[in-house]
């Protein structure tokens, strides 16, 4: 399997090809692929789905993907390292990095909003124009355009619900899950009584209603979402355990470790150490292959 690395934190380029030069590529960075023209099949992590003009794919680190082109295709490709996401202040969109990694759960285009499809199309045309010119402040303009694409991608990923929540789910459940995600760092706002009052339901009805709609309890949903955010803090940030505990409203390291160990079977420090070992092994593997 071919592995690819990038040498800069951000790389943007235009590509016009009639066949994919490499198959089953594995990256150590994020990659947006926007289809300017053409169609074919996109394979990612063993799944094959058709693609068409206007689709936007997000390939995350360690995803394995390839394209089977049915004709000459044009792409805008945006590659950026995880460090690029960390270095930017995203203000209202916290856990944006976690959202981007969550795209690995999906094989198709991540643009679900029609208005956003038009906006991204315009942004990509502007990127194409800017990349083709060597002008003053060109790099700054490219970064602003790329950041806009990242925010729109995160917005679309955020409304893609877990498999347990079907597209036909009651709109109120979608509002409840959005509320949970927005307030995941504030335990006081995630108490059953508070959520029930917020949405005009009784405590008992909220529990049975959520389980019926989502095939899991509301507490299970809250815990799994909180755990996923913690995992990404441990893997992709330098935050200390006590800082993560403060962020998610735990009294101290002992309480957050008990919570994490109950779900993952190990402490936060051990989980982070294991992730570091995997990263070292991957780097050594890349070096041995001359990458």
UniProtKB/TrEMBL annotation:
SMART domains: HTH_ARAC. The keyword DNA-binding applies. InterPro entries: AraC-bd, Homeodomain-like_sf, HTH_AraC, RmlC-like_jellyroll, RmlC_Cupin_sf. It comes from Pedobacter antarcticus 4BY. The lineage of its organism: Bacteria, Pseudomonadati, Bacteroidota, Sphingobacteriia, Sphingobacteriales. Gene3D superfamilies: Homeodomain-like (1.10.10.60), Jelly Rolls (2.60.120.10). It comes from the Bacteria. Pfam families: AraC_binding, HTH_18. Keywords: DNA-binding, Transcription, Transcription regulation. This is AraC family transcriptional regulator. Residues 174-274 form the HTH araC/xylS-type domain. The keyword DNA-binding applies. GO terms for molecular function: DNA-binding transcription factor activity; sequence-specific DNA binding.
């Amino acid at each position: 399997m071919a592995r690819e690395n990038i040498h800069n934190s951000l790389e943007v380029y235009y590509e016009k090809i009639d066949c994919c030069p490499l198959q089953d590529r594995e990256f150590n960075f994020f990659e947006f692929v926007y289809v300017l023209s053409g169609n074919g099949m996109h394979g990612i992590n063993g799944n094959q789905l058709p693609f068409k003009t206007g689709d936007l794919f997000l390939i995350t680190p360690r995803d394995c993907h390839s394209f089977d082109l049915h004709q000459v295709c044009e792409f805008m490709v945006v590659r950026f390292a995880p460090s690029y996401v960390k270095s930017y202040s995203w203000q209202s969109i916290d856990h944006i990095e976690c959202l981007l990694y969550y795209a690995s759960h999906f094989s198709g285009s991540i643009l679900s909003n029609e208005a956003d499809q038009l906006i991204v199309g315009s942004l990509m045309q502007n990127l194409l124009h800017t990349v083709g010119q060597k002008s003053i402040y060109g790099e700054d303009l490219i970064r602003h355009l790329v950041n806009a694409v990242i925010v729109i991608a995160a917005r679309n990923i955020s409304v893609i619900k877990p498999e347990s929540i079907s597209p036909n789910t009651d709109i109120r459940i979608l509002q409840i899950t959005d509320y949970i995600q927005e307030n995941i760092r504030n335990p006081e706002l995630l108490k059953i009584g508070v959520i029930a009052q917020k949405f005009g339901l009784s405590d008992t009805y909220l529990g049975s209603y959520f389980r019926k709609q989502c095939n899991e309890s509301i507490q299970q949903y809250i815990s799994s979402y909180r755990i996923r955010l913690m995992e990404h803090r441990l893997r992709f940030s330098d935050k200390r355990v006590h800082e993560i505990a403060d962020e998610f409203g735990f009294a101290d390291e002992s309480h957050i470790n008990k919570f994490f160990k109950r779900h993952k079977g190990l402490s936060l420090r051990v989980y982070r150490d294991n992730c570091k070992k995997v990263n070292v092994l991957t780097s050594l593997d890349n070096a041995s292959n001359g990458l």
